[in-house]
Amino acid sequence: MPTPPGDSNRAASALPVLFVPIWATGFISARAVIPHADPLGFTAVRFTGVALLLALIAMASRVRWPGTRAGWRDPIVAGFLMQGIYLAGVFWAVSRGLPAGIAALVGSLQPLLTALLAGPLLGERVSGRRAFGILLGFAGAGLVLAPKLGATDASGIPPTALAVSLVAVLALTLGTLWQKRTGGGGDLLANATLQFVGGMACAIPLALAFGHATIDPVAPLWLGLAWAILVNSVAGILLLLALIRRGAVAGVAALFFLVPPVAALLGYLLFGEVLTLVQGAGMAVAALGVAVASRA
């Protein structure tokens, strides 16, 4: 029987809502597994599992793979930056004490950095409204970060971990700009698979060079790995593709601003990570700045 139009519309409207907790729990899974595994080794295993699963799904779906060398190279380079450096950096930063909500906030600054760098790198004009949004977003982030920078209590922000997280977001931004510059054409599922191959090309050498073999094979580790592969990555990518095909990308962009507070709430409920009232207000200001800059 065909699906009634009302049910189909309700299912489509529910998809963006699912995207927020799926993305937010990526920071929580990092917080959950770090006591049991090396963060660099974990990300290498994660990317390998995701790349293999997406490749199997892509082959079963008979996707059209790129027909040129650039078609293979461009998504792999984007994945090296957007998946490999970014997620490896986030996991390492969280393993060094960066709270999950703060890691999510730093990640949410990526649209601001993209807007800021699009002018000098891509020749795009930055409007006054977008410039205001950029300033507002960074001011809000400052309210969140400054009160606890270098503090030694459980809610403190280690400067080195914060610096690595910022470098990771810069890599995410450069990967986004690279993808925008190279067009990002081709089959979406094939591109997603190649991006995780690029993530593997980054994470495996990092794990071999700087990681260690410490693994505590307990249930939280295996559950965290399964969640990171099946939910955060594979389900997240397939959900994003479904949203793109349904034309609901704008809904994802709007709900993406909720990721930092959701991650902060989960961090509080699961790990006792606490934000002050000033930090909560700063998170709201940062989200508003990202919204203004993204819609300008």
Automatic annotation (TrEMBL):
Parts of the chain that traverse the membrane: 12-34, 40-63, 75-94, 100-119, 131-150, 156-177, 189-215, 221-241, 248-271, 277-294
Annotated membrane topology: Multi-pass membrane protein
Key words of the record: Membrane, Transmembrane, Transmembrane helix
Annotated PANTHER family: EAMA DOMAIN-CONTAINING PROTEIN, INNER MEMBRANE TRANSPORTER
Residue ranges occupied by any EamA domain in the UniProt entry: 19-145, 163-294
Any one Pfam family match given in the protein's UniProt record, by short name: EamA
Keyword flag Transmembrane: yes
Keyword Transferase: no
Protein name, as recorded: DMT family transporter
Localization per Swiss-Prot or TrEMBL: Membrane
UniProt similarity note: Belongs to the EamA transporter family.
